[in-house]
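Workshop exercise sheet. Pairs work together: one partner reads the sequence aloud, the other fills in the structure field after running the prediction. Swap roles for the next sheet.
Pair: D.N. / O.F.
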Amino acid sequence: MVVEFGHVSTPWPVPPSGEVAGGRVVPRSWRFMSGKLVPYEFGFNHPAQSEYREYDLPTGFVEEVAVFLADTNLEDVLGICAIGNAEIEGRIELNRGRVNFTVPPSKPEDMDVRLVPEHAPSVWAFDCKTGLNDTTMTLARVCWVCPKH
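Structure field:
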């Protein structure tokens, strides 16, 4: 499974209990498979550095997202991702082999995918109090895409 610690994600062997290296692995990204929500990316909480919350996603919210994704044929494209405060401000995800890591933008324009064609939007944040609509959505992460591929 892919596990994030800090701002670096790599494949880890993790036992079913989720207990590893003195800490615990918890889900932080989910996708829909055959109509069910399934975790696919995880965060590692060490006793000395615990930054990933365990989430009990509200059933109504999950059902609403599932219906929207099915109606728009986006089930294989979009999912749900729990993000931290740093990501709300914006991060750039880079990939090197089997390692993913995020860095803060050097300047605000780095998050504008119209100005940086190598960046593709990959995570959006929205205000949970007002719901999922265009007025509260912000781009939380862009993924650097190699133009040669």
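Discussion prompt: Strands lie at 2-5, 8-11, 19-20, 23-33, 36-45, 80-81, 91-96, 99-103, 119-125, 138-144. What would you look at next?
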